[in-house]
């Protein structure tokens, strides 16, 4: 079977049919065929209004669906899949992305570019292409690997939820930072079997993995320097985190990094034998046998880590990666509009030429 | 592109940690990477998943990044599971592939002529123990395996030193002592380690030559395992300049030796 066709089917199976996006796709299908009258506008409201747990699950499925369309937009851009989709898929996707509530969700409430670009691509109004090359395809596979790492790890998801001002039960980002004040409790959390970690311990582990993600993502974007449009599209895939709520993310991340700097301050020495009064989350937890000796911070390693993490974050949040797609879209839309205008003008000219001259 | 994107081997089984990179054309061989203590199916082998598929020899290989419980389990249990996995790989590969291989790859039935097992640190112990279990169970596929080891912990490992190379544990100058079944098993000089080495030598002397590693790669700056005498039946170890216990299995574009070593045994 054709390379691009196989890739399309594979991506659709991975990220739509076998994934959480399927739930939103089914909801939209029910609306499309009149089997449901669900008020999507209410479901997809801004989270300033309280959201129930059930709604959060449903809203997440819409995020996954939009993420799937975003991946397809990137895949089309580099020729990993063809823009010539099967008609049924094109029609359904176009309907889904044109649904007023969904559109408002990704264009106004939480504006992200890629779903919009994909809708325009499906309708032939904006077809952005990076040069097709095997290197770009290799980078895309790396990108998918990063995407999988983040989307399949519930601890990263939890930490991201906290960064996004979310709460789980009585816990939020403040509790993560509190726990991180204690080197002993941090190490104990990371050493625990993931299944036995408390909510806050999970968020600490998620934070550790989130830093790995940031570093790898920044490295990937840097590797994609020769493909500015593709690079920008990959950044846009995560623009919610590094663009839209960048200030919240930066605030949370800086609090985490400051905890480490406190470890390396003079006062931190010997803290490991203390029950850290300010950390109240693990009371009653069995204490591990680790760290009987004084904690001696490796100041140089901590400093290097903090500096390098800040650098990665600063790059990702500088928004410089977002510019190429913005410019290309604005130019592309203009060009497509001009082409459409030209087509209309041509049609008019032809019509005029065909129109019989009035006699006399 | 010679391979599909990486994915979970069993997308419907949340507990399964194994990742796979399927070859696009019908494969003849498989590579199975087995990580060590606190490792991750793919991250332990960082960049292998990107650099290896680009090699010519890899085009006929499915690449498995085996994942297992390395925090609360023990090497005996995990070796048994690996043995089961290898048995499935040899006897019913289509079934192994059924959940995640794109149907459009058009494979039909296929089988692996040989499987290269690549183990890092405690992963090396698990690989060997899995082959010993297979021998006990009188499976027939073991001669079709090849072993490649990176910094093997055949003589035990000092986990506190390992932690010092990992993640946020690096922030402590003090060694982190921690108890878990697996750590106690692999402590240097433990009865488990002594027994394993004895079992390997005995089986080797009885003709199980597949237990001998084809290649052993070690780190230059090793603090976790003993580089002096890895295992009497193994070939001379090949050091990689500038690497530590955790980086010896992580190739970089500027230093692809780890990939070269694996490719040599493919």
Description:
The complex is a heterodimer of chains A (360) and B (266). Chain A is 68% helix and 0% strand. Chain A has 360 residues and is mainly alpha-helical. Chain A has helices at 3-17, 21-32, 40-43, 53-77, 87-98, 100-109, 114-122, 134-152, 154-163, 173-180, 183-191, 199-223, 228-237, 239-244, 246-263, 299-317, 323-354. Chain A contains 17 helices and no strands. Chain A is globular. Chain B is an alpha/beta fold and 266 residues long. Chain B has helices at 48-51, 75-91, 93-97, 122-136, 159-163, 181-185, 191-205, 257-264, and strands at residues 7-8, 19-21, 29-34, 61-66, 114-120, 145-150, 215-221, 238-244. Chain B has an 8-stranded mixed beta sheet with strand order 1-2-4-3-5-6-7-8, with helices on both faces. In chain B, β5, α4 and β6 (145-150) form a beta-alpha-beta unit. Chain B is globular and about 55 Å long. The two termini of chain B are 19 Å apart. The model of chain B has no long low-confidence stretch (mean pLDDT 91). Chain A binds chain B through residues 1, 3, 5-6, 9-10, 13-14, 18, 134, 137-138, 141-142, 144-145, 148-149, 152, 183, 186-187, 190-196, 208, 212, 260, 263-264, 272, 288-298, 301-302, 305, and chain B through 1, 3-8, 11-12, 24, 42-43, 49-50, 54, 69, 71-72, 102, 104-106, 167-179.
Label the overall shape of chain A. Answer: globular
Mean pLDDT across the residues of chain B is 91
User: What is the strand arrangement across the widest sheet of chain B?
Assistant: 1-2-4-3-5-6-7-8
Largest interface: A-B, 49 and 35 residues
Provide the fold topology.
The complex is a heterodimer of chains A (360) and B (266).
Chain A: H1 3-17, H2 21-32, H3 40-43, H4 53-77, H5 87-98, H6 100-109, H7 114-122, H8 134-152, H9 154-163, H10 173-180, H11 183-191, H12 199-223, H13 228-237, H14 239-244, H15 246-263, H16 299-317, H17 323-354
Helix pairs in contact in A: 1-4, 2-4, 4-7, 4-13, 5-7, 8-12, 9-12, 10-12, 10-15, 12-16, 13-17, 15-16
Chain B: E1 7-8, E2 19-21, E3 29-34, H1 48-51, E4 61-66, H2 75-91, H3 93-97, E5 114-120, H4 122-136, E6 145-150, H5 159-163, H6 181-185, H7 191-205, E7 215-221, E8 238-244, H8 257-264
Parallel strand pairs in B: 3-4, 3-5, 5-6, 6-7, 7-8
Antiparallel strand pairs in B: 1-2, 2-4
């Amino acid at each position: 079977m054709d390379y691009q066709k196989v890739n399309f089917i594979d991506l659709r199976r991975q990220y739509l049919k076998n994934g959480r996006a399927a739930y939103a796709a089914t909801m939209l299908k029910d609306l499309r065929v009149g089997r449901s009258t669900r008020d999507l506008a209410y479901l997809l409201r801004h989270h300033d209004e309280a959201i129930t747990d059930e709604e959060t699950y449903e809203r997440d499925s819409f995020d996954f669906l939009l993420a799937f369309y975003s991946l397809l937009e990137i895949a089309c851009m580099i020729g990993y899949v063809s823009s010539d989709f099967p008609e049924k898929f094109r029609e359904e996707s176009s309907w889904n992305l044109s649904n007023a509530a969904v559109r408002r969700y990704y264009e106004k409430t939480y504006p992200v570019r890629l779903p919009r670009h994909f809708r325009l691509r499906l309708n032939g109004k904006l077809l952005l292409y990076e040069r097709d090359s095997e290197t770009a395809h290799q980078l895309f596979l790396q990108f998918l690997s990063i995407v999988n790492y983040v989307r399949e790890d519930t601890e990263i998801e939890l930490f991201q939820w906290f960064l996004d001002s979310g709460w789980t039960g009585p816990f939020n980002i403040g509790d993560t930072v509190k726990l991180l004040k204690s080197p002993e409790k941090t190490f104990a959390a990371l050493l625990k079997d993931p299944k036995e970690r408390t909510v806050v311990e999970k968020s600490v582990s998620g934070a550790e993995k989130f830093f790995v993600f940031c570093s790898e993502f920044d490295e990937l974007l840097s590797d994609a320097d020769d493909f500015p449009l593709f690079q920008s599209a990959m950044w846009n895939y995560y623009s919610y985190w590094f663009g839209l709520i960048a200030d919240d993310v930066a605030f949370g991340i800086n609090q985490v990094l400051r905890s480490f700097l406190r470890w390396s301050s003079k006062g931190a020495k010997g803290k490991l034998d203390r029950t850290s009064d300010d950390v109240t989350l693990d009371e009653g937890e069995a204490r591990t046998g680790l760290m009987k000796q004084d904690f001696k911070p490796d100041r140089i390693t901590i400093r290097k880590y903090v500096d390098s993490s800040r650098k990665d974050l600063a790059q990702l949040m500088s928004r410089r990666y977002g510019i190429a797609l913005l410019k290309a879209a604005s130019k592309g839309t203009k060009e497509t509009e001009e082409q459409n205008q030209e087509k209309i003008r041509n049609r008019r000219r032809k019509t005029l030429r065909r129109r019989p001259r009035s006699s006399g | 592109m010679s391979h599909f994107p990486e994915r979970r081997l069993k997308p419907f089984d949340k507990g399964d940690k194994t990742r796979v990179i399927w070859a696009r054309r019908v494969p003849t061989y498989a590579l199975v990477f087995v990580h060590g203590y606190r490792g991750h199916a793919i991250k332990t082998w960082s960049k292998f998943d990107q650099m290896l598929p680009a090699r010519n020899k890899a085009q006929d290989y499915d690449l498995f990044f085996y994942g297992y419980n390395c925090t609360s389990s023990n090497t005996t249990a995990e070796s048994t599971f690996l043995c089961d996995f290898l048995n499935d790989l040899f006897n019913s590969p289509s079934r192994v592939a059924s959940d995640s291989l794109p149907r459009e790859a058009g494979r039909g039935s296929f089988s692996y002529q040989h499987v290269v097992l690549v183990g890092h640190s405690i992963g090396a112990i698990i690989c060997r123990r899995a082959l010993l279990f297979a021998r006990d169970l009188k499976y027939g596929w073991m001669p079709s395996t090849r072993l490649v080891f990176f910094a093997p912990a055949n003589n035990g490992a000092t986990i506190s030193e390992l932690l010092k190379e990992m993640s946020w544990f690096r922030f402590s100058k003090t060694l982190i002592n921690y108890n878990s079944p697996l750590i106690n098993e692999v402590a240097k000089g433990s009865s488990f380690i002594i027994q394993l080495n004895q079992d390997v030598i005995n089986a080797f002397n009885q003709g199980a030559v597949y237990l001998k590693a084809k290649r052993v790669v070690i780190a230059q700056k090793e603090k976790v395992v003993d580089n002096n005498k890895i295992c009497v039946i193994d070939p001379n170890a090949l050091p990689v300049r500038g690497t530590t216990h955790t980086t010896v299995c992580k190739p970089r574009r500027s230093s692809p030796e780890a990939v070269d070593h694996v490719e040599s045994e493919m």
